[in-house]
Specification:
heterodimer, A: about 325 residues, alpha/beta, Rossmann fold, five-stranded parallel sheet, globular, B: Rossmann fold
């Protein structure tokens, strides 16, 4: 009997998710033993036409990472959806837009300008990409950018969500074990639409720092201050996103002395991640005077960036007015 | 009038508290005070109940402006929760500004149960201010508002 088929794809992402998959170490051998890897551009040579030639639903498990930045991303997402039984939005980019989704704060023109003209780019002739270019051998094209970055489930139907930037390797290993067990009839897959490879609570629940009643007179940036290693970071005025963020990472950042930046996405039941953080941060401000509240809030240099670092494309508002105008 | 010549009528979602601002609206109604009909009021038990998600969803769902209204500072039925609403209002305004939603589209209004006239006048004034700002037309094409919050979609 032939083995079930496995595919992994990257759309608008950094490649960290692929590294995280390889970080499951020798368990990757279990993946190889249980699955026939048919399509994984970062690890093997396969062509889009190979996928196109497959039967619908022929791929058993597809881990799809990356957001929908251009029409190629969307085309492959739709193709892999058709060919896959289980489509997993793998990692923060596919689930909620992640760092590439921050471009949804800017117009597409500003985004391209930043990529091709700013100081980190050596481009003295101001060469810009063109969608279609006529060569002697024929016309060549590159994919067209979407005006705003979309999440995977804004384009295709998604079976499971696996959050994290990137997902923790022990969580990936657990999911691999679960899927293999389910294929052998030894376990049940969770209901469609479930978040897998993560907890159902918040990062605060996993955090070992001491917590008291939170009252804040000042927000401070962690790079300009020293913090108490035992005490809750938010209580010390460090904007820590743990209160709204899904558990599953064992509170790695707060344990290491850094604030949670929210890469595991919204906790169970949170509709809009940023709105939940607005609620939480505003509630702990220790002032009843509008002037003092404003002064305290000045300590949050970039509130929208702080609250939507990973979640802008997946939020209720999705993209700024500037980005919507194109 | 044809569609083109009709003046722009803003859609405003108003959140009021059970004890003061909703009573003010009620008083304005029973006293037959005239004010702009553009605000759709939603009664909460307290302005402190206002989850910023409600405000963001209203904008994403097509509202041109949102009004948050509660008891005067010091008068909250639940002691201090209207101060929480005030802090959230300040932080929401900052986030919304970064998203390109003008601060003038989110208003905080204190009104006691006796202030029907003040409430009515403030709403009429707010509607005129929003009319000057023009339609927000938030592009929600393809936005996946989760099923549990999309049951009662905002319709114009």
């Amino acid at each position: 009997m032939s083995k079930p088929k496995f595919a992994m794809y990257w759309a608008a992402s950094c490649g960290g998710c692929e590294i995280a998959v390889l970080n499951i170490h020798e368990k990757i051998l279990d993946v190889d033993a249980a699955f026939d890897v048919v399509f994984w551009p970062v690890a093997m040579d396969a062509k889009y036409k190979d996928v196109e030639a497959m039967q619908d639903g022929e791929i058993t498990l597809c881990l799809f990472n990356g957001g929908m930045r251009n029409d190629e991303n969307e085309h492959i997402a739709k193709l892999l959806r058709r060919k896959s039984k289980i489509m997993v939005a793998f990692g923060s980019c596919a689930c909620e837009g992640c760092i590439p989704g921050l471009a949804n704060f800017s117009s597409i023109t500003d985004m391209v300008d930043t990529a091709f003209t700013t100081i980190t780019t050596d481009n003295p002739d101001n060469i810009r990409p063109v969608i279609s270019y006529a060569m002697p051998e024929g016309t060549i094209t590159i994919p067209t950018l979407n005006p705003i970055l979309k999440t995977l489930d804004q384009v295709v139907d998604v079976d499971y969500y696996m959050p994290g930037c990137p997902p923790e390797s022990h969580q990936i290993a657990a999911v691999v074990d679960l899927v293999i067990a389910a294929l052998n009839g030894k376990a049940e897959l969770p209901p469609k639409g479930a978040t897998i490879g993560a907890g159902n609570s918040t990062v605060c629940d996993e955090c070992t720092r001491k917590r008291n009643v939170k009252t804040i007179k000042e927000f401070r940036r962690i790079q300009f201050t020293t913090t108490d290693p035992e005490l809750c970071l938010l209580e010390q005025g460090i904007p820590c996103n743990g209160v709204a963020t899904r558990s599953g990472c064992n509170a790695r950042c707060p344990s290491a002395g850094a604030q949670c930046i929210g890469c595991y996405g919204p906790a169970e039941g949170v509709v809009d991640y940023g709105a939940r953080l607005v609620s939480a941060f505003a509630s702990v401000i220790d002032s009843d005077s509008p002037e003092e509240i404003d002064r305290i809030l000045d300590g949050l240099v970039d509130p929208a960036g702080q609250f939507y670092r990973f979640n802008l494309a997946g939020s209720l508002l999705r993209a700024s007015k500037l980005a919507q105008k194109g | 009038m044809t569609e083109e010549t009709k003046p722009f009528e803003p859609v405003i979602i108003g959140f009021t508290c059970n004890w003061c601002s909703y009573r003010a609206a009620d008083l304005a109604g029973t006293a037959r005070m005239k004010y702009a009909p553009n605000v759709r009021l939603i009664r909460l038990m307290c302005s402190g109940r206002l989850d910023p998600t409600f405000v963001f969803k209203a904008f994403a769902g097509g509202a041109d402006a949102v009004l948050v209204s509660g008891c005067h500072p010091g008068d909250c039925h639940y002691a201090t929760q209207n101060y929480k609403a005030m802090r959230r209002f300040h932080l929401m305004t900052r986030v919304l500004t970064q998203m390109g939603i003008e601060p003038g589209r989110l208003k905080l209004l204190w009104a006691s149960a006796a202030e029907g006239q003040i409430f009515a006048n403030a709403i009429t004034k707010f509607v005129e201010e929003v009319r000057l700002l023009g339609p927000l037309n938030w592009n929600t094409t393809g936005v996946n508002i989760p099923a549990e919050v999309a049951k009662e979609e905002v319709t114009v």
